[in-house]
Every structure is written in structure tokens, then in C-alpha cells.
Amino acid sequence: MSMPFYVSPEQLMKDRADFARKGIARGRSVAVVQYADGIVFVSENPSQALHKVSEIYDRIAFAAVGRYNEFENLRIAGVRLADMRGYAYDRRDVTGRGLANAYAQTLGTIFSSGGEKPYEVEIFVAEVGDRAADDQVYRLTYDGQVADEHDYAVMGGSAEQAATYLKEHWTEGAGLDDSIRLAVVALGQDGNGGRTINAGDLEVAILDRTRSQQRKFKRLTVAQLRRILPDENGGGDGGTEPGPDGPGHPSTDPSGPDDPADPTDTITQQPPLEDPTSGEPEPPIAPPVS
Amino acid sequence: MTGSSHGPRLDPAFLTPGTSSFAEFLSTQAPELLPHRRALPDGSAADLAPHGTTIVAATFPGGVVMAGDRRATMGNIIAQRDIEKVFPADEYSCVGIAGTAGLAVEMVRLFQTELEHYEKIEGTTLSMDGKANRLAALIRGNLGMAMQGLAVVPLFAGYDHTQEQGRIFSYDVTGGRYEETAFHSVGSGSLFARGSLKKLYREDLDAEGCTTAVVQALYDAADDDSATGGPDVTRRIFPVVGVITDEGYQRLGDTEVAGIADRVIAARMNRPDGPAAALT
């Protein structure tokens, strides 16, 4: 008779948490910053098609890091839940809190159930209010924990360095342009002086309470970002498309110069941290056996 | 709404990829919310609920105008004097509905959600024809109700970015979808409105001229159809007018429509039948 293989519950949960955390840390960060007229989301995402930041409902937006297919599923579920609630009741009855709750329960159940692999995602659910004091930002982790964030928050990748930078430089009531510049610099913090992020590699969206339409969510185009970001951020040359060897543009051409700061640069000996087109982390190692 | 969607954890159906259509999702998750999924007892229900009446739409270079009168009737009774029957469907299209008012309003809400839902899930808007076809599918689903007297007949108009012009679609109760050129009208007063527009409409009208033409047409419809409401000068209730251009849907303000309606009424003081068209 063989001995049953025993794993203590503490160890099991720790393994699952480590597994999820590793997956999330491989991705790139998303920063959310409150500014005078709303909430701005900034993430480094070279893909124009696969979004990390999206609209859920009139005043609610969603941002995520981690595995694309998993957070995309959660996003669609959120849109379905919000639209269904708004249709069955009224548009005002769809709240960020309700949505964050549904996500928390879903993530929590999946995390603690033995049968499913935990989701390797972290999510922001943000709702813009009529006044800055009414804005709400919820941060949800892979295990279903909910945290109420204020002023600014960062998740994924080198989140701590970016958060430290924001803590030192964030001011209340800043304008949109200043807030975007601040968030971009914060995302570029890598512990050794920071790197600049190209406007074309950014995904920026806002929840703007001053927008006259019912739907407050809006994406900023690359051209708009080029106007906002200073020249040294690359591509601040008045709207022309910077070539692959333009100023500050990291090269993905294998024959080009090596840029160790750029995780999509494929000519270093290290494997790329994430898929350069989808922004998705490399497939994880097999989940821990329970 | 099903209990599952209220429960703490999202139902697995929410997390299942597949459809981008809200109506399709509802039909599996909460079919009781769909307007046409209700079983009705035999017999006609036509006299039970208020009916909305006349909607007109006309294109002009660079856009399209839609207008609806404000009356809802129940038999010989005026059920409501200030009902609204023209709604934005999304940023670049609008829908006006004649027929059973309650069902119509519900169907518009479903259609609005359907377009927004697709836009959010797919990250892009439906084409103009795609939107028109989705509306046709919703109307087709309502055929059973229509046969019991609860018909809903919409008129759909919008700005098509690929063709760079305003377009109008009309429907029948079976979900038949027909593209109209220049102008069209639905509802009980539609015959009179269409006759009026035939004489007044010109292809080179601008947005304001086009708006005046549709207000004239609604006046003519109200003149000859008891179920269509004319401009109510004592209560200052005027038609709802929506204008769609490449800048999106815009509902004309009450003062703007009132100004046009007042000019129309003033001219009719001299000639009650409205502007005279040349004989040849």
C-alpha cells in the first residue's frame, strides 16, 4: 500500500499564490492615476489591438495585467454583467462596487478550488464620480482580495518602483497632460535611472467626468500622446511616424543595436519576458499538483 | 434576471467566450427579459396599450434628419401628449418607432444595449448594414406579438462612414429590411407625411431646410390623421428632431424646433394646406 502524498493546506495555498504572482510579475505594469477631471490609465502595451484597458459601462473602466486570455474573459464577463444589470434595472444601477464584488467572488472561488488553475491576473475596476471625492478605484488580486485604492495605484511588472515614484511626485488636482507624463515616467522606473517609453508603445485611456456623453470612457490616440509627451520620450516630432531606428525607439530588429532595457528586444541571450505583440507573459510552468 | 447572475460568483456562462450579441446572451441567460419571449393568451391585445404614430426621416448631403410627433393614442383617447419616439441608437444612428409604445420603447432599449455591447466586446462599431440587420432580427422575433395586435414598426437612420452619407432603413413586421432613398415615413400618418415630403423634399436641402421639410410633413400628417399630434402651441410641445452627421447624433433643442414650428404655423395661417408646389 502506497502512502498518500500529503500537502498541507498552507503549502498548497502558498504554491498557488506563488504561481499566480510569478505570472503577473512577468507582465508589464498598468498605472491608474486620479487627476482633476477623472481617472487616467496608462500601460505599456505595444499592441494596438489587444487592450489592457477597456470600457465596461458608462462610468466604469477595467484594466488588467497578467495572462491576456484570462483577463479578457473577465472583461467580457464584466461587460455582460453590467449591460444585463443596466438593461434589467437602470443605467445608474450599474456600480463599480457591484462589479468589483462579482470579480472578487469569482477570482476567490477559482483560487481556492482545487480543480482549477488560479487566474494569473490582477485587475483595476475604476468608477468615475461627479466629483473627485466620489471616484473609486478597486484593485483585485488573483486570490479575490479587494483593495480600495486612492490617488494612484500600480500593478504588474515592477509595480513597486513605479508606485514609489508616484508616491513622491503625485499631487492632487493635477491636469490630464501632467498626470499622463507623470505616469509614463513612473512606468519607466526600473531601478537604474529609468528608461523612456515611446508614445507608440503606450496604451492610455481616461474616464473623464467632464465628457458630455453618457459614456465617460475614452482612449487617447498615439497622435494625442505624442503632443502630450515631451520630445525626449521619442516620437515628439510633430506627428510623423518614427521609424524603427527613430530616436528613443527600442529596436526589435535582430540585426539592430541591443537594448537590454527592452524586454521585447530579442537579441539578448535572455528570453523575452513577454510576447512582443500580445504583451502576454510567456506560458507558465505547469501548475502545482494538488 | 436569473438568480445565477445575482449570486456571488459570476455564472460560468458569463466567462464563456462566444457571442458578441447581447440579445443572444440574454436568450440563454435571462430569456424572460427579451420583449418577444412572452406567451400571450389568444386574441387581440391591440386595444390594451397606447400606440405611437408618425415618424419621418429624410437625408441631406452629409447627414440625415429624423422627426417624430409627440402623440400616443389608445383608440379614441390621447394617451400621452409628450411621448418621445425618436431615440439615439448609438453615436451615429437613431431609431424612431411606431406601433405599441411599451414594446417599442423596450425594443429600443434592447437595440441600444445590443449596439453598445457589440462595440465594447469587439472594440469596434458594427457597420451601418450590420446595425440595420440586427434591428431586423429583433423585429422578426416580435412577429408573434405583432399577430396579436402588438406590432412594432421602426424606422432606422444613421450616418454611414464608409459611404459618407446619411442612410434610412424601413422595416415591416416580419423583419423585412428595406433601404430607402431620400426620405421615408412610418406610422398611421405616414401616407400623408410621405405625400407632403414628395412635394417639399429636394436633394440639395441643408440640415435646417431638411428639418423644416420634416416638420411640414408631420404637420400635414397631423392635419389628416387623428392619431398624429401636430405642434401644440399652447403647451409648447413640438416634435422630437434628431440630426445625424459625421459628428454624430444631435437632438435639436426645444427652442430651435419651436422656432421652425412657429414659422411653419405662421405660414399656414395664410395658406392652411402648406407651401404650394409648382404644377410643372
UniProtKB/TrEMBL annotation, chain A:
Pathway: Protein degradation; proteasomal Pup-dependent pathway. The keyword Amino-acid biosynthesis does not apply. Residues 263-272 have a biased composition (Low complexity). Pfam families: Proteasome (PF00227). The keyword Hydrolase applies. GO terms for biological process: modification-dependent protein catabolic process; proteasomal protein catabolic process. PROSITE patterns: PROTEASOME_ALPHA_2. GO terms for cellular component: cytoplasm; proteasome core complex, alpha-subunit complex. The formation of the proteasomal ATPase ARC-20S proteasome complex, likely via the docking of the C-termini of ARC into the intersubunit pockets in the alpha-rings, may trigger opening of the gate for substrate entry. Interconversion between the open-gate and close-gate conformations leads to a dynamic regulation of the 20S proteasome proteolysis activity. Residues 227-290 are annotated as: Disordered. Residues 281-290 have a biased composition (Pro residues). InterPro entries: Ntn_hydrolases_N, Proteasome_alpha-type, Proteasome_asu_bac, Proteasome_sua/b. It is found in: Cytoplasm. GO terms for molecular function: threonine-type endopeptidase activity. Keywords: Cytoplasm, Hydrolase, Proteasome. Belongs to the peptidase T1A family. Component of the proteasome core, a large protease complex with broad specificity involved in protein degradation. The 20S proteasome core is composed of 14 alpha and 14 beta subunits that assemble into four stacked heptameric rings, resulting in a barrel-shaped structure. The two inner rings, each composed of seven catalytic beta subunits, are sandwiched by two outer rings, each composed of seven alpha subunits. The catalytic chamber with the active sites is on the inside of the barrel. Has a gated structure, the ends of the cylinder being occluded by the N-termini of the alpha-subunits. Is capped by the proteasome-associated ATPase, ARC. This is Proteasome subunit alpha. It comes from Nocardioides iriomotensis. The gene is prcA.
TrEMBL record, chain B:
Its main location: cytoplasm. Keywords: Autocatalytic cleavage, Cytoplasm, Hydrolase, Protease, Proteasome, Threonine protease, Zymogen. It comes from the Bacteria. CDD domains: proteasome_protease_HslV (cd01906). The keyword Cytoplasm applies. Belongs to the peptidase T1B family. The 20S proteasome core is composed of 14 alpha and 14 beta subunits that assemble into four stacked heptameric rings, resulting in a barrel-shaped structure. The two inner rings, each composed of seven catalytic beta subunits, are sandwiched by two outer rings, each composed of seven alpha subunits. The catalytic chamber with the active sites is on the inside of the barrel. Has a gated structure, the ends of the cylinder being occluded by the N-termini of the alpha-subunits. Is capped by the proteasome-associated ATPase, ARC. This is Proteasome subunit beta. It comes from Nocardioides iriomotensis. The gene is prcB.
